Amino acid sequence: MIETLIIQFMTDPYDETLHFSQSWQQQLAEAFNKIEDLCDYLELSPDDLPISIAAIESFPLRVPLSFAASMEKGNPHDPLLRQVLPVKEEMGIYPGFSVDPVGDIQAAAQTGVLHKYQGRVLFINTGSCAINCRYCFRRNFPYSDLQLTKQKETAAIQYIQEDSSIAEVILSGGDPLLLNDARLTHLIQQLSAIKHLKRIRIHSRLPVVLPARITGELINTLVSSLVQIVVVIHCNHANEINERVMDACRSLKSNGIIVFNQSVLLKGVNDNVAVLCELSEKLFTQGIIPYYLHLLDKASGTGHFDVTETEALMLIKQVKDTLPGYLVPKLVKEQAGAASKQYIL
Ligand SMILES: *Cc1c(COP(=O)(O)O)cnc(C)c1O
Ligand code: SF4
What we know:
Elements: H1 2-10, H2 16-20, H3 24-29, H4 35-42, H5 53-58, H6 65-68, H7 79-84, H8 105-111, E1 113-117, E2 120-124, H9 143-146, H10 150-162, E3 168-172, H11 181-192, E4 199-204, H12 206-209, H13 216-223, E5 228-234, H14 243-253, E6 258-264, H15 273-285, E7 289-294, H16 309-320, E8 330-333, E9 342-343
Parallel strand pairs: 2-3, 3-4, 4-5, 5-6, 6-7, 7-8
Antiparallel strand pairs: 1-2, 8-9
Helix pairs in contact: 11-13, 15-16
The structure holds pyridoxal-5'-phosphate and iron/sulfur cluster.
């Protein structure tokens, strides 16, 4: 009897202290990938949620425990849960939503680089992510299409070397921090040796959803870069910023790395003045500057997150009337063929 109890205790998948003491790779391997397990952990019954098996089949469930641990138990409308819950609405048809709304993902996937804006290139390093956000455009692309092969990587670096107008390389994905330390170190060494490069920017959701990724070794890699490193984290709601996230951000900041945040404006998650203000305030307590608030890219399967431009403008104006200017993110949208993000306010 006691033995079974001990065994049960030792193999409890939700032993958070044990889980968070493991390596980031192990934590990633143990991320929730079954809806029943996530519901069980959150003390919710799958029958009470509008879950769609078809949605899971088209874009799997993936949620690290560190992120799930910030959700409110028993709350089917939790704003963090909403970001990852595969629901029936994803299978609905929404006018104006398409597989590749900005129209360049497929092209970028073939070369690994996307050079649309003056002086900056997007460098797509991996197609995978630690979390599957239901509002993501990436849901419509097979992982392997976006994966960077050695061949693509060599060609991409050569492209950057040969164009002296490129001042900044933006590592993107997927999530570039899913590359292991050896590959990341090698990549940053190669890039920072390019004379005309001024900055390397890393867009990653890992500091928020898998903060264990911010290891001492990663910090060493970033600090050893010959060019300035900027990290843009992706956080949509103040509740995402738990103690582990704060530790990760503190360790980036205390090592001189500039950290910005970008969010996506999502219906039922952060389409509310108080929620947006709280997010900016909480980010800033960690020394993180709000950068962009993006309108949703209209990708198939994400229509239920849509906030109209008129509503968005109303919201951001109210945020502007409430907070100091430096805490107001720029409201932007991505437009096919445009030379920059389109500022709405
Ligand atoms: C968003 C984006 C960038 C970065 O834009 P900033 O305004 O510098 O943050 C660069 N290239 C592409 C293709 C992008 O979509
Ligand atoms: S690319 Fe960003 S938004 Fe999309 S699934 Fe990955 S972490 Fe989420």
